[in-house]
Design brief:
This protein is an alpha/beta fold and 495 residues long. The protein has 3 domains: 233 residues, Aldehyde Dehydrogenase, Chain A, domain 1; 196 residues, Aldehyde Dehydrogenase, Chain A, domain 2 (3-Layer(aba) Sandwich); 35 residues, no CATH class. The protein has 18 helices and 16 strands. The chain is globular and about 85 Å long. It starts with 5 loop residues before the first helix and ends with a helix. The protein binds nicotinamide-adenine-dinucleotide. Nicotinamide-adenine-dinucleotide binds next to helix 8 and helix 9.
């Protein structure tokens, strides 16, 4: 297996801050020339993006798999490629309508005038991409930004050097530097990138790095959308049937070997359910992956450092008294060589263990005893607001309580992950799991300035009436002015 050293791979990029600034200047100048690209231009860009992905499907799957050591080809096809096509199809279907001006009512006192909202492209949108779904997390913000009429600069992750280089080549061959610029490289390039005076910056990555990105963006007061992670809980309510819920949780935890921002991180359930849950999860994992080593359908952990981090979470939990169950019967050395970690259920956990403190981002599932719904809601609310929350119950009142009394970026009930795939649901976090949202219409608005415009009428009878009505707000104030203020208060419901 190819072992990637991200720093070494990143060192190949010779991009300097001045190169990035020059690329930004090119896009800003182009935007000045074409500040409001017609739908035909936006549509053509979206179609070109779709077509270049279509033409390179196999290259994309192979490059991402090489970067991971092994990445299930079907997972790339489904989660990176199909998801990108879906986003493009949605923009193509609705983008022209989303562009349209929206007429708004005017207040009575401004009778005769009119008001509207004009969605306007922002200019140049910066996008910083993580490694875990490297096509989708580059393409999805690009699609929203392009649909909204912007040009885009993208910084790829140093952990996916093969795919990053391929994506750069694909974009360079498809778009002019005025439309799309792709930067590869390491943290030094990322730091310089996050300090550029974009018109908007969308960062997808960890909460800790987001703090640096937000600080760098603040230098130029660049508005940011921060798409982050966190510990996404699974609440298993007392009424949930274990056999019914296992497939959904197993899929969420093992797709991409748990390296998904919205993967279930830990589970909360009554103690009496834990043994049955643990048995059933292990059984399900072994049905899905009869072997983990050598199995092309099971994704490897991205890098040695992440593999070591996950092993140290397990060691720490074991040293502090947790029980660890690993699915399958694979040779440990072989697994380590392939950087594969089978589903691992960790029970008897408590909050002193690192596994209950840090985002796991791997196929380890700690299960914590939590007896009542009050306890479960209390636990979630006492911890950092997560990106996702999963609730398993058949009871409508339980659903409502959890939905209304807990905070999370998004929720799936009786399933995991699928709220992310719904084109009419915005995607984003809350608090430390993110700021702002995008995808679908929300993405179009995130990458637009929704400009409020008031048009005064310039003549005719309506203007004359309006002029009389509004005379009171022009000094010198008199009785007529007081009458006008009284009238305005009455209109606002003040007696
Ligand atoms: P990361 O924060 O380490 O890196 C993300 C990007 O930031 C990379 O391109 C990297 O080069 C860049 N970067 C690193 N240091 C930087 C700095 N000092 N200044 C500016 N940029 C810098 O994240 P990762 O390991 O690539 O991805 C995993 C994290 O991303 C997890 O926390 C996961 O939950 C989160 N994530 C969130 C979403 C979402 O949509 N909310 C999606 C995928 C991943």
């Amino acid at each position: 297996m190819v072992r990637i050293n991200p720093e070494k791979a990143a060192a190949k990029s010779k991009l300097k801050t001045s190169d990035l600034q020059a690329a930004l200047a090119v896009q800003k100048a182009a935007f000045k020339r074409t500040p409001y690209p017609a739908w035909s231009i936006r549509k053509a860009r979206l179609e070109k993006l779709r077509d270049v992905i279509r033409a390179h499907e196999d290259d994309i799957k192979n490059a991402i798999s090489e970067d991971f050591g092994n990445r299930s080809l079907l997972e790339t096809d489904f989660a990176d490629i199909v998801s990108s096509y879906n986003e493009i199809a949605d923009q193509l279907k609705h983008g022209e309508k989303w562009m349209s001006r929206r007429k708004k009512k005017v207040e009575l006192a401004q009778m005769g005038a009119s008001a509207e909202i004009i969605p306007q492209p922002l200019g140049v949108v910066g996008v910083i991409v993580p490694w875990n779904y490297p096509l989708f997390l580059a393409a999805s913000p690009m699609i929203g930004a392009m649909g909204a009429g912007n040009s885009v600069m993208v910084k790829m992750s140093e952990y996916t050097p093969k795919f990053s280089a391929l994506f750069k080549k694909m974009m360079d061959e498809t778009f002019s530097p005025e439309e799309v610029f792709v930067a590869t490289g390491g943290v030094d390039v990322a730091q310089a990138f996050s300090g550029l005076a974009f018109d908007h910056l969308l960062f997808t990555g960890s909460t800790s790095v987001a703090k640096h990105v937000a600080k760098a963006a603040a230098e130029n007061l660049v508005p940011c959308t921060l798409e982050l992670g966190g510990k996404s809980p699974v609440i298993v309510a007392g009424d949930a049937n274990i056999d019914d819920i296992i497939p959904q949780i197993a899929l969420g935890k093992m797709m991409n070997a748990g390296q998904t921002c919205i993967a279930p991180d830990y589970a909360l359930m009554p103690q009496a359910k834990i043994n049955a849950f643990s048995d059933a999860m292990i059984k399900r994992a072994e049905e899905m992956y009869p072997t983990f080593a050598g199995n092309e359908q099971y994704t490897s952990v991205i890098a040695d450092a992440h593999y070591a981090r996950l092993q140290s979470l397990l060691e720490d939990a074991e040293n502090k008294g947790a029980t660890i169950r690993v699915a399958g019967n694979d040779d440990k050395q072989q697994l380590a060589k392939e950087r594969r970690i089978p589903l691992t259920v960790v029970t008897g956990v408590n909050e002193d263990m690192k596994i209950m403190q840090e985002e796991i981002f791997g196929p380890l599932l700690p299960v914590m005893a939590s007896e009542t719904l009050d306890d479960q809601i209390g636990y979630v609310q006492d911890h950092a607001r997560p990106l996702a929350l999963y609730l398993f119950t058949k009871d409508a009142a339980t659903k409502d309580r959890v939905l209304l009394e807990t905070h999370a970026g998004g929720v799936s009930t009786n399933d995991t992950m699928w709220h992310i795939s719904q084109s009419e649901l915005p995607f984003g976090g809350v608090g430390p799991s993110g700021m702002g949202a995008y995808q679908g219409e929300k993405g179009f608005e995130t990458f637009s300035h929704m400009k409020s415009v008031f048009h005064q009428s310039t003549g005719g009878i309506r203007h004359a009436i309006k002029g009389k009505l509004m005379a009171g707000i022009h000094a010198p104030y008199d009785e007529g002015s007081e009458k006008m203020v009284k009238m305005a208060k009455k209109q606002a419901g003040i007696k």
